[in-house]
Amino acid sequence: MEKCKILLIHGPNLNLLGIREPQIYGDIDFKTLNDIITKKAEEKGFEITILQSNWEGQIIDWIQDLGSKMDFIIINAGALTHYSYAIRDAISAIKKPTIEVHLSNIYAREDFRHKSVIAPVCIGQISGFGIYSYLLALDYISYICNS
Ligand code: DQA
């Protein structure tokens, strides 16, 4: 059986994990987070590509060029979640099942974070479970791909 291919995109400022507002985002650094995700993805037999950019256009290029070759996309678009119609359109255009992930509970924070413009084009959203938000996304994919 072919391996299930996943593209994980981290958006702006997620590279600062561990340093950035640890009371909100936790104290695990970005590399450790990706190591944990990679380990779990490999245990489940997935092939995962993990990328991070602070640039909206770069994220759109990745969704178009790489996302279209994947079985699933997991995206934490950071603050772009709340206003990037361009990322929303890119997800919509390539028609691949996309899971929106957030470390923090965006609904328990400032008003501007309560709206996700990408949520309507994603299959679902996981928000508020810290690094487990990503692992829950992998569990869902495992349910679909490995059963
Ligand atoms: C975030 C929530 C966003 O509102 C914020 O801009 C981020 C991180 C999260 O993972 O909780 O950069 O996406």
Provide structural commentary.
This protein has 147 residues and is of the alpha/beta class. The protein has a single domain, classed as Dehydroquinase, class II (Rossmann fold, 3-Layer(aba) Sandwich), CATH 3.40.50. The protein contains five helices and five strands, in the order E-H-H-E-H-E-H-E-E-H. It has helices spanning 22-25, 30-43, 56-65, 85-94, 132-145, and strands at residues 5-10, 47-52, 72-76, 98-102, 124-127. It has a five-stranded parallel β-sheet, sandwiched between helices. Helix 4 links the parallel strand 3 (72-76) and strand 4. The longest helix is centred in the N-terminal third of the chain and has 14 residues, at 30-43. The chain is globular, with a radius of gyration of 14 Å. The termini are close together. 34% of the residues are buried. The mean pLDDT is 97. Bound molecules: 1,3,4-trihydroxy-5-OXO-cyclohexanecarboxylic acid (DQA).
Q: Which features does this protein show?
A:
single chain, alpha/beta, Rossmann fold, five-stranded parallel β-sheet, 35% helix, globular, binds 1,3,4-trihydroxy-5-OXO-cyclohexanecarboxylic acid
